Amino acid sequence: MENKGYEIIGVQADDYKRIDTNGMSEDQDYEFTPNIENTVHYLKSEKIQTKNGVMKIYQPVRWNNKTNRWNKGGTAVTLGHRKAYYDFSF
To answer: Domain for residue 77, yes or no?
Structure first.
């Protein structure tokens, strides 16, 4: 969605399942599968000036029905990277 010079994108977490046989080890392998039923988190693009030029970043936002605006805040996400880990010490 394009709005006033910025983009809003929706992202969802994948489901994951541990596939190794390493027991209570830090060496863990996971299989990831998309789940379109997961909660959608929204990100708003922002252009920032760096010493090497302009860079586009995405910040978490939430829709406010009272003001009909996007408000900063929400769940931080990483794009293009899948990672899962279970810490057995907790």
So the answer is: no
